[in-house]
Write a structure and sequence with these properties.
With 403 residues, the chain is mainly beta. The chain has helices at residues 2-13, 44-49, 161-170, 175-179, 302-306; strands at residues 36-42, 51-53, 59-61, 68-72, 78-82, 87-93, 96-103, 109-113, 122-124, 133-142, 145-148, 197-209, 223-234, 243-245, 254-255, 258-262, 267-271, 283-289, 292-298, 310-317, 323-331, 345-354, 358-360, 364-365, 370-372, 382-391, 396-402.
C-alpha cells in the first residue's frame, strides 16, 4: 500500500499551493479590497503598564509595549497596523483563516490572539454578509495569549460547534509559528525580516472499497497508511535537503526525500519520508536548515488524525460504462452524518488508477463538488480511486478507495 500512496504523493506535488510573503511596509494583503472587513480592538492593560519615563517626563515605549498588530495568512501575506493609545484597527480578508500576533517597537514578539482554547486562528469563513467590522473590544493578555472580551465565533463568524472543533484541529500546524513567530530565534519576528517558515502535514488514509457499487463503503475510524511533513522556507541560497528530527525518537533523524521549488515566490518546500511507525505525537519537531535548528512545537495529533472529515467519491458512468464524472461528499469522522465543507476545505483533486495508466484531475476549487472527465476511462479497467481535499491551512488529506 505504501508504494501506491507514494505515487499519489508525487502527483500531489504538482498541485501543492504554497506561500508568498509581503514586504514589511506593505499595507494590504493584495490589491483587491472588495472582500475585506475591519478588525479592531483595545489592548489597554499591557499598553498602559509598559510606558516608561525618560528625561523631562516624556513617555516612550519599552520592549514590552505592544506597538504593532500583525495579521498574516497561510500563504504568508501579512499586513500591519500601529497601536495608538492602546487601540488598533486593521483591514483583513474574508474567506480565509488569519492569525493575529502582537509586536513591540523592535519587532519583538509579545503575544497572539486566541478566540478559544486551542484555536489559534481567526477563521474568516462564513462571515455574515452584513458584517463590515468586527470589534474584539478589550484584548486581555496572559502569558502572551490574548483573549477578546467579544468573541465573534458564532456571532459575526457563523460557524457551528462542530465546524469550530474541526478548524481548531486543522490549525495545529500553525500553532508553533503563532506562539513563536521567531522560529530562527534571533529576537525578531521572521515575517518582518521577509522570512516565512512553516510545516504542513499530508495524511494518507485507507478509505474503503467500491465492491460492485459506484460509491465506496467505508468504516470509521479509518486506518492510515502513513503521513508526511512538508517544511517550507522563503530564503536565498537554500540547501539541497534538510533534516527532520521527530519527538518520539530525536536520535534518529531523516533527510528530506523530495524538494519542490516555487520560483514565483522564491520558496523551497522539503518533504519528509513517508512515516508510518507512529502517529504525530505532540512535541518538538526540529528542522536542521542552513546550519541552524528550527523548532516547531506541535500539539498532539492523535485525536486530530481520527477526527478529520472523510471525503467519499461517487462515480457516474456513461451508457458505454466509461466514467462520465466523479462527484464527492464529506462525512464527519464517525460517518454518521454529512458536514458542510465550506468552513474547512479549499480545493479537491483526485486520481483514477487503471491496469495500465493513471488519470489525475486538476485542482477543483470550492465550492465545486464534481468534475467531468475529459478522457475515456472504462470502469471495468479501474483498480483504485483516490481523492484528496486540501484544508484552508493547506494541509492535505488523501483517501484511497479500492475497487
Amino acid at each position: 500500500m505504501i508504494k501506491n500512496y507514494s505515487l499519489w504523493f508525487v502527483i500531489l506535488l504538482s498541485s501543492l499551493i504554497l506561500f508568498a510573503s509581503c514586504n514589511k511596509d506593505d499595507e494590504i494583503v493584495n490589491p483587491d479590497n472588495q472582500n475585506k472587513i475591519v478588525l479592531k480592538g483595545n489592548i489597554p492593560s499591557l499598553y498602559k503598564n509598559s510606558m516608561i519615563k525618560i528625561n523631562g517626563g516624556q513617555n516612550v515605549s519599552s520592549d514590552s509595549t505592544i506597538t504593532k498588530v500583525i495579521v498574516f495568512y497561510p500563504n504568508g501575506f501579512y499586513t500591519i497596523a500601529n497601536v495608538v493609545d492602546g487601540k488598533f484597527s486593521i483591514e483583513v480578508e474574508k474567506g480565509t483563516p488569519a492569525f493575529m500576533i502582537f509586536a513591540g517597537p523592535n519587532d519583538n514578539y509579545l503575544g497572539f490572539l486566541s478566540l478559544r482554547d486551542g484555536f489559534e486562528s481567526i477563521p474568516l469563513v462564513k462571515v455574515s454578509d452584513n458584517v463590515t467590522t468586527i470589534d474584539l473590544q478589550n484584548i486581555l493578555l496572559s502569558n502572551k495569549v490574548g483573549s477578546p472580551t467579544h468573541n465573534p465565533l458564532g456571532t459575526e463568524i457563523l460557524l457551528s460547534d462542530e465546524e469550530q472543533q474541526i478548524l481548531s484541529m486543522f490549525d495545529d500546524f500553525f500553532y508553533p509559528i503563532v506562539r513563536n513567530p521567531d522560529v530562527d530565534g534571533n529576537g525578531k519576528i521572521d515575517l518582518l525580516e521577509n522570512k516565512f517558515y512553516r510545516l504542513q502535514v499530508l495524511w494518507f488514509y485507507m478509505g474503503g472499497n467500491f465492491g460492485s457499487n459506484l460509491t465506496p463503503s467505508f468504516t470509521p475510524p479509518l486506518r492510515y497508511d502513513g503521513w508526511k511533513l512538508a517544511f517550507s522556507a522563503q530564503e536565498d541560497n537554500v540547501p539541497e535537503f534538510v533534516t527532520f528530527f521527530y519527538p518520539w525518537n530525536p536520535s534518529a533523524p531523516s533527510q528530506s526525500e523530495q524538494t519542490k521549488y516555487l520560483p514565483q515566490w522564491n520558496t523551497t518546500v522539503y518533504f519528509s519520508r513517508m512515516i508510518n511507525e507512529s502517529l504525530p505525537i505532540g512535541g518538538i519537531y526540529k528542522i536542521y536548515f542552513k546550519n541552524q535548528y528550527l523548532n516547531f512545537d506541535i500539539p498532539d495529533q492523535s485525536s486530530a488524525f481520527r477526527n478529520c472529515p472523510i471525503i467519499v467519491p461517487t462515480v457516474t458512468l456513461n451508457s458505454d460504462s466509461s466514467i462520465q464524472k466523479v462527484s464527492w461528499i464529506y462525512y464527519n469522522a464517525s460517518g454518521s452524518g454529512v458536514v458542510d465543507p465550506a468552513a474547512f476545505a479549499a480545493r479537491v483533486n483526485f486520481g483514477i488508477e487503471t491496469f495500465s495508466r493513471s488519470y489525475n484531475s486538476p485542482n477543483i476549487e470550492m465550492p465545486g463538488n464534481q468534475f467531468t472527465l475529459d478522457e475515456k476511462i472504462y470502469w471495468n479497467t479501474v483498480t483504485r480511486v483516490w481523492i484528496s481535499y486540501h484544508d484552508i491551512f493547506d494541509n492535505h488529506y488523501i483517501f484511497g478507495y479500492d475497487k
